[in-house]
């Protein structure tokens, strides 16, 4: 396959073409020529899009797709198409399917379902068998089968000794442990952030302490054991500061924040709309601003959509009973540009690849074509028509967004949103 991307502005600090507007000739999945006014004597297919920008392919470190077991929420095939049209060339798949992805055969199954897709799938293996928190799963076997990290999605590890052993064990093969930060006993029956809003609405609150206490414990364990730990979807100001301090001490800790926690606060809960029920919960504006500061100063390494499709039967119901989660792939780019500069958005959507051992490809002649295509300008309103996922549980409906993700070129395939 040969195509020419016309008048594309490159956003890639690692490339000698950074910030330049060029034509890009792609031949058989390779960036064969980059320059201005490239000739096209053979009438190769040309792609011309309004205010086209390209960057290294985006990576999402936390995506749930349901399959196997919850195909009514989403399938791997459609989920990867959604990711491609949303600008993501790679995703890390969470193990919260049925059965849980906790062994070598399950890793191989989900990888086989992704074969041939333009967006690459990198499985996260469960840290414990069945994600039940009791016995450590077959981590080394899953690593050999292609798992890029190990964690129990939205489940913290109550057994500190088990987490300690896991952190020690994975060092033999340079593994990454994901430690979700939430003390379940302190959370109790809480469903939203504990504060003024929860009190006014009469909803049971989840205090910041539930997250911060768990992070403090996990960082102590990491300091004792060594190894690598990733703390996903942090949501409080104190959490950010603790991670900042841990990095200053030299601990190998990384962290992510979810788009919805960067954009929204618990003020969104006034109408008891379960679309805004997420885990961790939406916090206060003080916490949200601290997260943004963490993004800007490098304390937070990755921005994730934390994409989690939930079927209508489990989402559109009483707030207390509704499942937590929102889809986020389709809205991520447009939402982030309303709060962060373009260069920061691109950095936080690409830097996670190195942390999760996903190959990176600089935009240069002779390099593999792994590109996200987008327009950072223009204003839109995110609507149901923009949701490509099977489940429509988006917290971003009605939001005024900026810019547009056109799609991707990866694995020798061009995938655009309208195609």
Can you walk through the features of this model?
It is globular, with a radius of gyration of 21 Å. The two termini are 17 Å apart. The chain folds into two domains: 2-53 and 364-389 and 400-416, Urease, subunit C, domain 1, CATH 2.30.40; 58-355, TIM Barrel (Alpha-Beta Barrel), CATH 3.20.20. Helix content is 28%, strand content 23%. α4 (160-169) crosses α7 (208-225). The chain has 14 helices and 18 strands. Strands 1, 2, 3, 4, 5, 16, 17 and 18 form an eight-stranded mixed beta sheet that branches. With 419 residues, the protein is of the alpha/beta class.
Please render the helix and strand layout as text:
Blueprint: E1 2-11, E2 21-27, E3 30-35, E4 45-47, E5 53-56, E6 58-63, H1 76-85, E7 88-93, H2 104-113, E8 120-125, H3 139-145, E9 149-150, H4 160-169, E10 176-178, H5 184-187, E11 192-193, H6 196-201, E12 205-206, H7 208-225, E13 228-231, H8 237-248, E14 253-258, H9 259-263, H10 285-297, E15 302-304, H11 312-315, H12 332-336, H13 342-350, H14 352-355, E16 371-381, E17 400-410, E18 413-416
Parallel strand pairs: 1-4, 1-5, 6-7, 7-8, 8-9, 10-13, 11-12, 13-14, 14-15
Antiparallel strand pairs: 1-2, 2-3, 5-16, 16-17, 17-18
């Amino acid at each position: 396959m040969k195509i020419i991307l016309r008048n594309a502005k490159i956003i890639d600090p690692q490339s000698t073409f950074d910030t330049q507007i060029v034509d890009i000739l792609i031949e058989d999945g390779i960036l064969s020529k980059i320059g201005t006014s490239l000739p096209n004597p053979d009438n190769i297919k040309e792609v011309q899009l309004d205010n086209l920008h390209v960057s290294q392919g985006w990576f999402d470190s936390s995506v749930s797709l349901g399959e196997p077991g919850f195909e009514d929420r989403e399938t791997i095939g459609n989920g990867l198409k959604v990711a491609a049209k949303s600008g993501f060339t790679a995703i890390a798949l969470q193990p919260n399917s049925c059965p849980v992805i906790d062994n070598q055969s399950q890793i191989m199954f989900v990888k086989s379902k992704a074969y041939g897709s333009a967006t690459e799938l990198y499985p996260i293996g469960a840290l414990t068998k069945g994600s039940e928190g009791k016995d450590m799963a077959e981590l080394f076997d899953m690593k050999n089968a292609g798992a890029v990290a190990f964690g129990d999605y939205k489940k913290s590890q109550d057994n500190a000794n088990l987490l300690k052993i896991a952190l020690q064990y994975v060092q033999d093969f340079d593994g990454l442990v994901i430690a979700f930060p939430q003390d379940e006993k302190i959370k109790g029956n809480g469903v939203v952030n504990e504060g003024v809003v929860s009190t006014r609405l009469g909803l049971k609150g989840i205090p910041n302490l539930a997250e911060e206490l768990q992070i403090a414990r996990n960082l102590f364990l990491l300091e004792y054991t060594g190894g690598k730990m990733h703390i996903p979807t942090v949501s409080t100001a104190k959490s950010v500061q603790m991670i900042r301090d841990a990095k200053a001490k030299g601990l190998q800790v990384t962290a992510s924040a979810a788009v919805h926690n960067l954009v929204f606060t618990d003020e969104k809960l006034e109408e008891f709309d379960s679309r805004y029920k997420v885990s961790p919960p939406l916090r206060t504006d003080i916490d949200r601003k601290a997260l943004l500061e963490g993004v800007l100063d490098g304390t937070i390494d990755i921005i994730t959509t934390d994409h989690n499709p939930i079927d209508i039967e489990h989402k559109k119901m009483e707030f207390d009973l509704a499942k937590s989660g929102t889809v986020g792939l389709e809205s991520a780019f447009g939402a982030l540009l309303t709060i962060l500069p373009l260069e920061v958005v691109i950095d936080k959507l690409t830097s996670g690849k190195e942390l999760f051992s996903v190959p990176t490809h600089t935009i240069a002649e002779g390099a593999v074509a792994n590109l996200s295509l987008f327009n950072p300008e223009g204003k839109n309103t995110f609507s149901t028509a923009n949701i490509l996922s099977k489940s429509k549980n988006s917290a971003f409906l009605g939001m005024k967004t900026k810019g547009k993700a056109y799609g991707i070129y990866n694995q020798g395939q061009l995938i655009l949103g309208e195609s």
